[in-house]
Structures are given as structure tokens and as C-alpha cells.
């Protein structure tokens, strides 16, 4: 634990340094610098508070152990021993918390995300399930206080989506939804199934962090822009005007379609913002082969055998195959109660990282 304490003490020293800097008139006068330091102080606060509580427990534990060396009456001795037992348990809990807090953080955890949902294997039923997943994530986002916006959609005639692209904005969105990448399998009796047979279909989910103010310039010569009439709701204005925009970045083949806004100008601006994020993701992976492999790993082909999670309607059960978690509350999960699944995935990820540190 000595090495961990050294790391925590370094963070405590930095926290105190940043707190002092935030009271400096020069820093207060520099809005950008002040915001950066405020964010850093906020990110350190929980670890520093936990360490201080840990130190208080250790101090009390040492004092109680010293008391036992003295001659105490039986009742006081028993109370002291009970307190030592409780403090020892608290000490272990705080040590575990500090280990987790010191794990390397994903730099994208605090970012907003772009989510892509595709109906995959299973035809119309897969598209309907893609719509169910959208509703599930929408309800979860609402519970978290996040903002969700449809960027592009391709609906089917019977309902559901062949493709749906969303932006989800709020606190720590990527940290909670990054494990949703992959193929999601549904087992249920479709509404169109007269014989009552259970069918299996899949939808794929892809999650990318949104990069704000990315330092990337997209040249006009590398961009093709197509405008067309929006297929979404919006009344006569949208139906009669070519307000929707499709942008293609020719060097990478990255395509963004945007029809959510009322005017073509607004759609152009939003499409360019999303395009920059996707192109940045492309170049960040260094080459096209790496990018394609990353997308394949994240989203999968949608084949029934490629799944991260199964939603079994007849048994009201959800199973996450990566961690072997099964919960018999599918109805509640589809209503946006994803906390138990997401928390279990986060804990499993932390456990794996802690195991790596030991080796």
C-alpha cells in the first residue's frame, strides 16, 4: 500500500496547489485557465476526500490499539475491541476505493457520445428491436438528466429503424455507455408470427466519444455535400424544402446525414460538427485498416452468433455474455433501468484492471 499512498499524496499536493491557484487574481481573470483548473480540482476532490477519511480511520484505529495496552474495565475493553473491528473493516474498504480511484482513467469518459443503432439480422423484427433499444437508451438518458438528439434516421414501413444515429449529451455519458458497443440479440415472438414461434434477431450498437473543438481542418475539395428533402416529421416546411444534408469526406469515405434541424444552414452546421468527430476518430486510429478493425470490434457484423447481450422476452431475462450476468427483469431494463447492468460492467472492468496491476 505504500506505493498507493505515495500516489495519493501526490494528488493531495496537486489538489492543494490547484486550490491555491484558483484564488489567484491573475487566474480568476483568465477565464479559460480558471475553468481548466476548476475542472481539475473537481476531478481530484473525491480522491482527496476519500484519502482524508481514510487517514482519520487509521488515526482512530491506532489510538484504540494503544488504549488496549492500558488497563481497562471489561466493558470499555469490549467496546474498544468492537470499535477496532469496525475501523479495520472501514480501513480495508477505503483502501479498495483508493486503489480503484488510482486506476488509469479513460480520457474519453467525460465526453458526450454519438451512438449508432442498426437493425441487423432478422429483417423487420431486427428493425423493430433497434427501435426498442433506442427507447431503452432514451429512457435511461432521461433518468440521468442527459439530452438526446436524433441526428439521422432510416425508418421502416412497419416501424423501427434500419439505422439511427443519436447524439447524447450530459455528464460522463461515455463512461456509462461505452460498454454498449456490440451486437444485441433478441429472442421473442414477433407480432407478425401467427404460429407463436420464438424468433432470434439482432441489432448492433456503436458508441463513439464526441470530440469538441477538434484541431482538424476539412478542405472544401475533400467534401461532397448533397441536399435533399427530409423524411422526418415537421409539416409542410420540411416536406417542401431540401433542408436535409448529407456530407461525405472523400479521403476517408466518412458520411454524415443530418435532417433534424429546421433549416439547411442548421443541418449543415450540425453535420459538419459530427463529420469532424468521425474524421478525427478515423485519423486517431492512424490508418484505415486499424479504423475498420476498431469499428468491426465495436459494432460487429450483426450476425446472430456475435452478441454481447441477449434479451429473452418469454423468460423476461437479460444476459450479458461478457461477464455472465443474468437478470430476470427485462421489462424494467427495457424501460430504461440499466443501472444494474452498467454498474456490473464497470465493476468487472475495474476488477480486470486491478488484476493487470498485480501482474
From TrEMBL:
Name the family.
Answer: Belongs to the prokaryotic/mitochondrial release factor family.
This protein's record includes keyword ATP-binding = no
Report the function annotation for this chain: Peptide chain release factor 1 directs the termination of translation in response to the peptide chain termination codons UAG and UAA.
Which superkingdom heads the taxonomic lineage of this protein's source? Bacteria
Output the PANTHER family linked to this UniProt entry: LD18447P
The UniProt entry, under SMART domains, shows: PCRF
N5-methylglutamine modification sites are 236
Q: What gene name is given for the protein in this entry?
A: prfA
Q: Name one GO cellular component term.
A: cytosol
Q: Which Pfam families match?
A: PCRF, RF-1
Q: Chief localization class? A: cytoplasm
**What is the protein name given in its UniProt record?**
Peptide chain release factor 1
Identify the PROSITE patterns for this entry.
RF_PROK_I
Q: What does the entry's PTM section describe? A: Methylated by PrmC. Methylation increases the termination efficiency of RF1.
SUPFAM superfamilies, alphabetically? Release factor
Which organism is this protein's natural source? Weissella koreensis
GO MF: translation release factor activity, codon specific
Q: Where in the cell is it found?
A: Cytoplasm
Question: Which keywords are on file for this protein?
Answer: Cytoplasm, Methylation, Protein biosynthesis
Annotated Prokaryotic-type class I peptide chain release factors domain residues: 229-245
